Amino acid sequence: HLQRGQHKKAISCFERELSISPDDLNTLCMQADACLKANLKDKAEGIYREIIDINQNNFKALHGMGEIYTQKGERDKANNEHGFAEENFSQAIDYFAKAFKADELDRAYFERGLNSKEMGTLLYSNAYAKVMLYESQQGRNKNPRLLIDAKNDFTRIKNQHKNSQNYYRAEAAIRKIVESLQPSQERTTKFGAKVIFAFSCVI
Predict the structure, then answer these.
(1) What phi-psi label fits residue 195: left (phi over 0), alpha (psi between -120 and 50 degrees) or beta?
(2) Contact (Cβ atoms closer than 8 angstroms) between residue 167 and residue 158
(3) Alpha carbon distance 89, 149 (integer Å)
(4) Closest among 10, 56, 4, 73 to 36, alpha carbons compared
(5) Is pLDDT of 65 > 90?
(6) 121 and 200 in contact (C-beta within 8 Å)?
(7) Distance of alpha carbon 43 from its chain centroid, rounded?
(8) Confidence of residue 3 (pLDDT cuts 50, 70, 90)
(9) Measured between alpha carbons, how far is 83 from 76 in angstroms, rounded to an integer?
(10) Count of CB atoms within 10 A of residue 39's CB?
(11) pLDDT tens, residue by residue, 144-195
(12) For residues 146 and 36, what is the distance between their CA atoms, to the nearest angstrom?
């Protein structure tokens, strides 16, 4: 159901599975992802937090929390509440950083970790949040380092994760960032999501 976009049916299936195995973290993660895609953000956030309470290094739940805060930041940015937007995008970036760290630990101790497609999605989410944080900053508070870091993440997608669904969007983002960082360009160049970004889906 989830792959066919039938998110509410998927949620019902996961709820039945969890009634039998309530501590199955993989099923909980899939349920939270389905809730987020069905725009049940509060429910998704509650489940992600439940997972992190059980396992603070669950990279999929950490990624999901990053997506939650990114969406909160987008809402605040659209409402011109720049202070709240900055706070939420910063929280998103913090969660993505924890997800990267959790992936490193999983690879070191269990030789698993995110596959290439999942890593490409996490990199895109992280870079997107950094660009949105830059856009939310006002006047002299704008930090071009955020764009440089975002460009590095987009470049990793282009060079190392060519099977990522965000490959071509990463290429477009790199070009836009390079243009905006030129000395002759206005530092406040806008990147609006409708121009080059499409919100990345949770794994």
Answers:
(1) alpha
(2) yes
(3) 14
(4) 10
(5) yes
(6) yes
(7) 17
(8) low
(9) 8
(10) 10
(11) 999 999 999 999 999 998 878 889 999 999 999 999 888 634 444 455 443 3
(12) 26
